[in-house]
Design a protein that fits this description.
This protein is mainly alpha-helical and 230 residues long. The chain is built from 8 helices and no strands. Helix 5 runs antiparallel to helix 8.
Length: 230
């Protein structure tokens, strides 16, 4: 039965990919969509970073899919770790961190958090965004784990941050769909002045939500993996 279901699901996936590729003009002249984004992106979205205007405005629904993939991956890893026996006590044979690692962690941790926040707050102005900023924040927690193996992330706060980021992202997307009457994440807020921090409508808010969610999920993944290695 399981083999039959797997074959059917694989056939559905292959059929879906095949049908989607039928409409792709591989042998024709290049699409005008990219040129449209470049010419009109700044004026229509208020974002200086054209990539941001694409992933959080024109193709915001695709970004929702990426967030969902990350959430499912983190959820699946947590389920596997729980099935394997859950959290374990720290082994008594763990070597203490060196002075260099402890000192470096004390100096770099707040700087990494600040840098990650800067990356996703300014994602509409400069290269970066929520995914990149969240990954930097997660790397700060990885540094703490390497320095102090007995320390672990607060699960309640991690879950709250993760849930808050997802609710804000989906909530604003649905409000934009209802108010803008066009598409998911339709920007209904004032765009402000171009090239300023308070611009691009709700795009900075979305990036903040994504940064918090990605940072919380990746930090949770790192925590689960470290528990398993111990």
């Amino acid at each position: 039965m399981r083999t039959t279901v797997s074959i059917v699901l694989l056939a559905v996936v292959i059929l879906g990919f095949g049908l989607s590729l039928l409409d792709v003009p591989f042998a024709e002249r290049k699409s005008q969509i990219g040129d449209y984004y470049i010419v009109n992106g700044r004026d229509q979205t208020g974002a200086t970073n054209i990539v941001t205007s694409v992933v959080l405005d024109y193709r915001g629904f695709d970004t929702l899919g990426e967030i969902t993939v990350l959430f499912v991956a983190a959820l699946g890893l947590g389920a596997v770790m729980a099935a394997a026996g859950g959290r374990r006590e720290r082994p008594s044979t763990t070597e203490p961190p060196s002075l260099v690692l402890r000192t470096g962690t004390n100096v770099l941790f707040p700087l990494l958090i600040l840098f990650g926040v800067y990356i996703f707050v300014h994602g509409h102005l400069t290269p970066g965004g929520g995914f990149q900023g969240g990954a930097i924040i997660a790397s700060a927690f990885l540094l703490v784990y390497l320095c102090c193996r007995e320390r672990r992330i607060n699960l309640a706060r991690k879950t709250a941050a993760d849930s808050l980021g997802g609710i804000v992202f989906v909530g604003l997307g649905l409000v934009g769909l209802a108010v803008g009457s066009r598409y998911f994440l339709s920007d209904f807020l004032p765009k402000g002045s171009l090239d300023t921090l308070f611009s691009a409508g709700m795009i900075p808010i979305i990036y903040i939500a994504i940064g918090i969610k990605v940072g919380a999920e990746l930090a949770g993944v790192i925590d689960d993996l470290l528990e398993e290695t111990e």
